């Protein structure tokens, strides 16, 4: 016997891998610029962009450079931009009031980007208090220092309204409070913003990979978010979060982080009939950049492989700090 193909002598999967053209033809997953969403940080009171050391290549934008980044993303064919505001340190307080100030940095940034790109690029905003609170939590605290779910919901309702007033197309509640999608949907509907969509951070794990983001937004957090973000050990719980968010009116759902949770992403994508997003977060970005900077991996191939894997697992949209760069290559 010269081969071990005894049963199926003609079956040789390698035939379909012989040339680049052949591989291209049979590829099951293709990335497209419109799959990509660029998360971007804008910081109040700076006159030049501030590099984020743990995210080489990513900056905290000035209002001006944010506008330019939005135009570049649009020109590259990126689908949307997700905005995060970084207020002046002195403006942080226990209730995160800068997050609901119509002239707060995030609202100002939404108006700036809207004025620049209009409806050409989908404009999204992080709807969460952690960037604006002096304790760094995603909500307001009760007397014992615990994040108060229902008091936080009232703050989120206000945030939804000011972000929508500023012209955002989609709000992205990321705080993992129970009931947040329903409260935000009601607040939007009651203030004449029926057309503003909710991209729910439905499945959001308490992850070590958010580390670099804390630097990116100048977070004041001491401790962790384990009482409101999900435990990495759990999968079934994600289905419960998903059912609740859909019942509360989520237009789109997100799984976050991406790479360590592709199993959950695949399950969500198989379950729902709404668009599914995945967020390739700061630590996922930093990991690849750091290894590449050391010459340990091929940066460009690694980036494409991670994004292809996320799409293959079922994501319709991917939030990635490489969005503009990758869109240009596609
Ligand atoms: C909360 C929020 C976080 C991220 C997006 N929205 C931080 C957190 O939950 O601790 C993380 C994004 C990233 O790490 O790239 N406002």
Automatic annotation (TrEMBL):
SUPFAM superfamilies: Aldolase. Keywords: Heme biosynthesis, Lyase, Magnesium, Metal-binding, Porphyrin biosynthesis. 5-aminolevulinate 2 binds at residues 282, 321. Catalyzes an early step in the biosynthesis of tetrapyrroles. Binds two molecules of 5-aminolevulinate per subunit, each at a distinct site, and catalyzes their condensation to form porphobilinogen. It comes from Streptosporangium nondiastaticum. It catalyses: 2 5-aminolevulinate = porphobilinogen + 2 H2O + H(+). It comes from the Bacteria. Pathway: Porphyrin-containing compound metabolism; protoporphyrin-IX biosynthesis; coproporphyrinogen-III from 5-aminolevulinate: step 1/4. Mg(2+) binds at residue 241. NCBIfam families: PRK09283.1. It holds the Pfam family ALAD. GO terms for biological process: heme biosynthetic process. The active site is at 204 (schiff-base intermediate with substrate), 256 (schiff-base intermediate with substrate). InterPro entries: ALAD, ALAD_AS, Aldolase_TIM. Its EC number is 4.2.1.24. One of its GO terms (cellular component) is cytosol. This is Delta-aminolevulinic acid dehydratase. Homooctamer. PROSITE patterns: D_ALA_DEHYDRATASE. Gene3D superfamilies: Aldolase class I. 5-aminolevulinate 1 binds at residues 214, 225. Belongs to the ALAD family. GO terms for molecular function: porphobilinogen synthase activity; zinc ion binding.
């Amino acid at each position: 016997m010269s081969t071990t193909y005894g049963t199926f002598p003609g079956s040789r999967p390698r035939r379909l891998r012989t040339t680049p053209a052949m591989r291209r033809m049979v590829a099951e997953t293709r990335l497209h610029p419109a799959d990509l969403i660029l998360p971007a940080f804008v910081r109040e009171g700076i006159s030049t962009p501030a590099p984020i050391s743990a995210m080489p290549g990513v900056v905290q934008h000035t209002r001006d450079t944010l506008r330019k980044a939005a135009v570049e993303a649009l020109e590259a064919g990126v689908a949307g931009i997700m905005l995060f505001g970084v207020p002046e340190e002195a403006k942080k307080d226990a209730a995160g009031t800068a997050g609901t100030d119509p002239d707060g940095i995030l609202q100002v940034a939404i108006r700036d980007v809207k004025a620049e790109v209009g409806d050409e690029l989908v404009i999204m905003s992080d709807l969460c208090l952690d960037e604006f609170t002096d304790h760094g939590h995603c909500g307001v605290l009760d007397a014992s220092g615990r994040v108060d779910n229902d008091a936080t919901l009232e703050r989120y309702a206000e945030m939804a309204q000011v972000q929508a007033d500023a012209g955002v197309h989609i709000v992205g509640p990321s705080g993992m409070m129970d009931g947040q999608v329903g409260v935000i949907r009601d607040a939007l509907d009651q203030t004449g913003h029926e057309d503003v969509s909710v991209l729910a951070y439905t499945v959001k794990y308490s992850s070590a990979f958010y580390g670099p983001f804390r630097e990116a937004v100048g977070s004041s957090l001491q401790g962790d978010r384990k009482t409101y973000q999900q435990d990495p050990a759990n999968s079934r719980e994600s289905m419960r979060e998903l059912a609740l968010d859909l019942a509360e009116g989520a237009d789109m759902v997100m799984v976050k982080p991406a790479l360590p949770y592709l199993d959950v992403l695949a399950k969500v994508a198989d379950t729902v009939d709404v668009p599914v997003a995945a967020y390739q977060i700061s630590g996922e970005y930093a990991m690849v950049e750091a290894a590449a900077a050391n010459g340990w991996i091929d940066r460009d191939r690694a980036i494409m492989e991670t994004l292809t894997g996320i799409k293959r697992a079922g994501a319709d949209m991917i939030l990635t700090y490489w969005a503009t760069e990758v869109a240009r290559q596609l």
